[in-house]
Amino acid sequence: MIGFDGFEASADAKRLIRDYGVGHVILFARNVASPEQVAELVRELQECARRAGHETPLLMAVDQEGGRVARLGPPWTVWPPLRALGRIGEPDLARRMGAALAAECSAAGIKCDFAPIMDVDTNPDNPIIGNRAFGDDPDLVARLGVAMIEGLQGGGVVASAKHFPGHGDTSLDSHLALPVVEHSRSRLEDVEMRPFRAAIKAKVATIMMAHVLYPELDPEVPASLSKPIVEGILRGDLKYDGVVFTDDLEMKAVADRWTPDRAAVMAMQAGCDIVPVCLTHDAQVTAMEGAVRAAETGELPFRGMDDALARVRRLKERYLLPYRDPDPRQARQAAGSPEFVALAQEISERGSEPLRFPWTSD
Description:
By secondary structure, the protein is an alpha/beta fold. Helix content is 46%, strand content 8%. A six-stranded parallel beta sheet has the order 1-2-5-6-7-8. The chain has a two-stranded antiparallel sheet with strand order 3-4. Helix 2 (35-51) links the parallel strand 1 (24-27) and strand 2 (59-62).
């Protein structure tokens, strides 16, 4: 999965789709000007994939959680952070918000939303999760997270439970450093993993791994690169057969320790299906060429790649086919509809969290 700069498809992005077969693209605020522009950008990227002979459409993704993590600003609905839903505690509101997010994203051609946060916010000093989480009660997080997943996926948009096995009790931001969670396995299973077990039972389409080190689970590498955690716990113990993402490999928790090619190969060896490299073209090329070399030498076994490809194809067949390019007029119409704005206002007021874009902490 790649990201790029600009409101139009960059030459580098098109080259990676055409020559390297990249099948997934993530959009950030740097790619977003208006609903019509996003719809046209998605159409342009999908046309590039079609001309390159891709068998399935690109999976277009965005981080649209609400609160401070929102890439689609006005005229799209401004949503409060998930903590507001946690304070209210009504699954129906979470389900309706998920459905609204799905409608706004899907109309613009975005069929994957990296939401909801399933982390349990047990550390008041956590610099990166905080009010992005529903709360500090794993059962509450599970109930509301499952409801949001149902809303998103019922609206035809891929949901993603993140960040497995739990980023809630960290004191560092994995964008900047490698956090360490020292809890015992029994505590991790009882608190951190409980919402993810509920998400798996609810058939969440994707799960995103945390760039966090859990010494009791794997003392060597963070969860995103850990075979004992991805294959051993997530696939083996929890029986998850959906698509697994790493978090962005250019985050410093990983990038300060491993080169893009090494990190990509380690993630694939661990059992991850899709590896996002979101920022720089050189890192994207390095990661993909490293994966190709690892496949050629047998460091990446073909059976594992075939299994990953089968999971990704099932995901795309369910959510992207039959494919239709987004209509710019429908993208504009869905963005910030009165129904969605009223819902966001209700959640904001009842949950005592403001509506701000861009988000500020004051």
